[in-house]
Amino acid sequence: MGNSLFFLMCLPVILLINFINNDFFAGEKTAYNNPVNNYTRLSVEPKCTECHTAIVEKKILHAPLKESCISCHLVNIPDHPEKSPKGLFLTKKIPDLCYTCHDKLKKEIDTLRVVHLAVSDGKQCMNCHSPHSSDEKKLLVSTKKEICLNCHDKELSILGRKYTNIKQLLSKSKVIHSAIEGGCSVCHKAHGSEYNYLLISAYPKGIYAPAKKDTFAFCFECHDSDLLELSKTTTATGFRQGKQNLHFVHLTGEKGRSCTVCHDAHASNNKFLIVDKVAYGKWEFRVNFAPTDSGGSCLPGCHGLAKYNRYAQKFGF
Question: Among 217, 238, 285, 305, which residue has the least CB neighbours within 10 Å?
């Protein structure tokens, strides 16, 4: 009698728990809060693409899609598609699902000093990659340049640092850095990097840095390092007075000026990607660069009017 009475007292609680698990959150069900054993692994491949034709129309198919849709999706056939699309779930959250196959990438990202925000923000992996098919290599959702400009189409502020609206800069500038034609990944790593600004090799932060080849390794991926290391040259740079290398003058020593003090890495309205203004703390001063056929001149805040002529009969030329 006592046991029966105890059961009857507990029955409302048992029913309530069952109601909560099965009905109350039915509209919120996802693969992540439902046991996998609620979904039957089918003995035959579901004919998903008979309805979902668009996901296989592109040239390059994601490898798991070639094998089976149930590589990534749990299909509750009684619910999908008769009741609603909610009968279809992912087997794991993104990006954990992606890392099931791309485990080496996960290990790499976990150890990198700088990780691209796109990896963890919003749609995460799907910010840049299609999970099904694409006409672009690496299953990118569009061209490399277009993908980057989908986010970099506004001024961004991340961890206290402001990032330029690159799309606007490129559209309004007369001179575009030629490296950009190959896509942003020519200079930047897509997922993360050991180097500042997601660069492919070393480049310093700030205005000043020791004038060493390794410090500016990124720039010397393309440019001749002689412009940093030779005091006199006629080939390493056009920025010279006769033979005197004016890059060497500006960069030499433990307090050498960073390249981006005078040059914009992406685009500019001035020849040689010279910037209009130089930021120095809270101040900005104009560079006032004026090119000529034989050289040019500038009048920035750091020195008075200075002219250079690469054909000058000086300095042993």
Answer: 305
* d(C-alpha 219, C-alpha 259), whole Å: 8
Q: Which helix (H) or strand (E) holds 7?
A: helix 2-19
Q: Cα(101)–Cα(98) distance, rounded to whole angstroms?
A: 6
pTM for this entry: 0.79
Q: d(Cα 7, Cα 157) in Å, to the nearest integer?
A: 60
In a domain, 93, yes or no: yes
Q: Does residue 84 sit within a domain? A: yes
Instruction: Identify whether the C-beta of residue 155 lies closer than 8 Å to the C-beta of residue 165.
Output: yes
Q: Structure tokens of 44? A: 């035959």
Question: Within 13 Å and on the Cβ side, how many CA atoms surround 130?
Answer: 23
Residues forming beta bridges with residue 257, ordered by sequence position: 208
Q: pLDDT digit string (tens) for 81-129?
A: 665 555 577 889 999 999 999 999 999 999 999 999 999 998 999 999 9
C-alpha–C-alpha distance, residues 186 and 278, integer Å: 26
Q: Report how far residue 190's alpha carbon sits from residue 194's, in angstroms, rounded to the nearest whole number.
A: 12
Q: Domain range spanning residue 77?
A: 23-99
